[in-house]
Design a protein that fits this description.
36% helix, five-stranded antiparallel β-sheet, 5 strands, 4 helices, extended, 153 residues, alpha+beta
Length: 153
């Protein structure tokens, strides 16, 4: 066989090997992260729920999802083990710095239309009438039938 005909197969096999190696590395990193869990550690599940680890079993983890509420999860359901500072910032809001220099974005657009500049453009802009225009005339019946006509055919 010619080397040119074998080249696509060699490239395909090499790509498959590289993909399986990277997937294995990710699995090992996830297993190592789950091994770092200790009771009292804050975690995020793969579903996005934040909880505190209470007990660790062989394949399961007991999480406290709210004060006094415990749930049993598979270890594979733990998406991330969080640092204490990050867990407290996300869950309890402790450590949030509200004195940032970033601009404040309003929750709604009402503040964008208020003010003197908006009032000037409001007078100049034509008003749109979105009311219903297709009302029947007073001498025409609403259903399009003349007096005395029946629905029977």
């Amino acid at each position: 066989m010619n080397l040119v005909t074998l080249l696509p197969f060699i490239v395909l096999i090499g790509a498959m090997i590289l993909m399986t190696r990277s997937a294995k590395k990710k699995q090992q990193a996830a297993a190592q992260m789950r091994d770092q869990m200790t009771p009292g550690t804050g975690v995020r599940t793969i579903g996005g729920m934040y909880a505190t680890v209470k007990e660790i079993g062989d394949d399961t983890v007991t999480l406290e999802v709210a004060p006094g509420v415990h749930a049993i999860y598979a270890k594979n359901a733990i998406g991330a083990v969080l640092e204490d500072a990050e867990y407290n910032r996300i869950v309890h809001g402790i450590g949030d710095d509200l004195t940032t220099d970033s601009p404040v974005v309003p929750d709604d657009a009402s503040s964008l239309t208020e003010g003197p500049a908006a009032a000037e453009t409001e007078d100049e802009a034509p008003k749109l009438d979105l009311g219903k225009k297709d009302e029947p005339k007073k001498d025409e019946p609403k259903d399009g039938k003349a007096d005395g006509e029946a629905d029977a055919k």
